Amino acid sequence: MARRPTPDENLPALTAVMNRHLGALRLNSIQEYLEWCRKQGFSATLDKDTRERQAEIEAHEAAIALKLKRHSKQKNNPRQIIEASFRGEIAASEVQRAALRDLCSLIERNRPTAKKLDALLEFILWAESETDFLFESFKYGTASVPAGAALFKIHNRQGQWLRPLEDWKKQSHNAERQFGSLLRHLFAKYPVPAFMDQAWSSGSKASYAYRDWYIHIGAGKNIRTAKKLPFPLTKLMAHHFLEAPASHTIENALRWGQIHGLGGDRTLARAVIGSRFGNHFQNDEFWVSVFRFFIANPMLDRTHFGPIADYLYAQKFEPREVMNADGGIDVILPPQPNLVMRGRTPDTLLAQVERWHRVLGQTKGFDNVHFQPSGFKPLEIKTGNKDDESAWRFRELRSTAELVEEGKKMRHCVSTYARSCAAGHCSIWAMELSSRLGTDKRQTIEVRKSGEIVQCRGRQNRLPTVGELDMVRRWANYAGLTIAAFVVAAR
Q1: What stretches of 322-362 show up as alpha helix (H) in DSSP?
Q2: Calpha distance 453→422 (Å, rounded)
Q3: Other CB atoms within 10 A of residue 185 CB
Q4: pTM of the full structure
Q5: Of 78, 115, 265, 338, which has the highest C-beta tally within 10 A?
Q6: What pLDDT was estimated at residue 486?
């Protein structure tokens, strides 16, 4: 008996025909085609005439039409799309509406590990019908976070809800107020400051502890007894922490409470929050001694805090990397690792900072490192008329030499950011005003890799004017950046 050829043996003779047929069916291989035939009820063979292949194409097109019709009905019905996403019947990439697509992406990422999936679906559908914030995003700190991400965290704490969900009623059409109201309904018997709401939207490593703090405060307990505080709080610090401005991050609020508790004022608090130490608490015992130094010298202009803090950090904590004779890299310890504030006076300290700046401004003896571009967009904004036209330019500084030059002209210590720029942690930008009279440097701007503007300083560390800050906002909107709340508050 003659042996019947296998599909693979028939393949060479059928390649041209099957290639056209597979293309019509949007399939990639013979094996995929045979599997498709089995699922659709067609014979799983390659030996078919034109009529059979046409029937398969018509069946395929009918299936596509049905799917498009179903998606067309769903695109204006978020509830159906949410339900389909939870069941895994629709991919986020198939959803047209951007905010709804973001929510479906969240569902896709969380569905495999979510507990009580039906209860979570019910909660999201409740939010879709009863709130106005499900498809909104909240800006906290360095990120814009979809409200859906916060709802997942809220649902994870369902066992700590104090009141029935259905008893909550919205009393405002403002998305952030609604969100805050829901949080307090579910988790708080006592007042919780507005800045604590970000605990549910923040994606930082500390955010789980922040949510514990929220529930702790909402239960009427003292923040001093909360777990995982970065430093001990006195009664006065705890009081001022709860009184911090709503625009602050939780980390900023901790500094606000700390500075006021030590006897400082809001001017010093804003100066500290506007520096690199507003959100970081490493080596806090030393930095408390720096805060006390400023408090003990009330006539020391608070605008000097940033330059002095940068100098102290470089002297006490920051190692340097230098190339040795063999072409390798040696790490040199900080110049003054045992530096303390005791015995220092404002005049001598300012003189040391000034000498340090002059050394930083010397271009000889340093390696001119070039940095990778940050990816954020530069911008030119033209103002005035044809006879007297000016242009505001936002230009990224891409090398050590450019940072040194910027620091010399602006008389501040931006050159100390070379290492951070080289590592990609941040980028430095020059805001310049060009006119027929020439180019005038106006502000030096630090942008974190997350896209948040955290520093904006003019010559000798002056703050931006209202007009300059307005230009920074225009650039931020164009480039997709955010401006840290403390930058605006400092103004």
Answers
A1: 346-360
A2: 18
A3: 16
A4: 0.67
A5: 78
A6: 62
Contact 283, 388 (CB under 8 A): no
Q: Residue 52 corresponds to which tokens in the numbers above? A: 């059979």
Smallest Cα–Cα separation from 36: which of 22, 19, 50, 15? 22
**Cα–Cα distance, 128 to 117 (Å, whole number):** 17
**DSSP bridge partners of 379:** 394
What is the chain's length? 491
What are the residues whose beta carbons fall under 8 Å from the beta carbon of 29, sequence distance 6 or more?
22
Structure tokens at 437: 């009279």
Residues 399 and 369: beta-carbon distance below 8 Å:
yes
**Mean pLDDT, rounded, of the chain:** 85
Cβ contact 303:461 at 8 Å:
yes
* Tokens found for residue 268: 């010093």
| Beta carbons within 8 Å of 405's beta carbon, 6+ residues apart | 363
pLDDT exceeds cutoff 50 at 7: no
For residue 18, the model assigns a pLDDT of 77
Return the DSSP state at 316: H
Please, what is the angle between helix 30-40 and helix 50-74, to 10°? 70
Residue 394, strand partner residues: 379, 431
List pLDDT tens digits, range 289-344: 999 999 999 888 887 898 899 899 999 998 876 666 676 777 788 999 999 999 99
Sign for the CA dihedral angle at 116, 119, 124, 125 comes to positive
Report how far residue 34's alpha carbon sits from residue 135's, in angstroms, rounded to the nearest whole number: 43
406: its two tokens: 């910027």
**22 or 294, which is more confident:** 294
Closest C-alpha to 258, from 485, 207, 246, 250? 250
| Helix, strand, coil percent values for the chain (each to nearest 5) | 55, 10, 35
The DSSP-derived string for 103-140 is HHHHHHHHTTT-SSHHHHHHHHHHHHHH-S-TT-EEEE
pLDDT in tens, 208-253: 999 999 999 999 999 999 999 999 999 999 999 999 998 888 999 9
For 16-25, 227-236, 387-396, 446-455, which range has the lowest pLDDT when averaged over its residues? 16-25
Q: What is the pLDDT of residue 153?
A: 92
Q: How far is CA 54 from CA 25, 39, 96, 149, in A?
A: 10, 17, 32, 47
- pLDDT tens per residue across span 428-473: 999 999 887 778 888 999 998 888 888 888 887 788 888 899 999 9
**Any long-range contacts for 372-377 (C-beta under 8 Å, 24+ apart)?**
372/424, 373/398, 374/424, 374/427, 374/447, 374/449, 376/427, 376/429, 376/447, 376/451, 376/479, 376/480, 376/481, 377/478, 377/479, 377/480
Q: How far is CA 288 from CA 177, 207, 232, 264, in A?
A: 35, 24, 12, 11
User: If residue 331 lies in a helix (H) or strand (E), which one and from where to where?
Assistant: strand 329-332
Burial string for 240-258 (b: 16+ CB within 10 Å, else e) reads bbbebbeebbbbbbbbbbb
- Under 8 Å CB-to-CB from 477, ≥6 apart: which residues? none
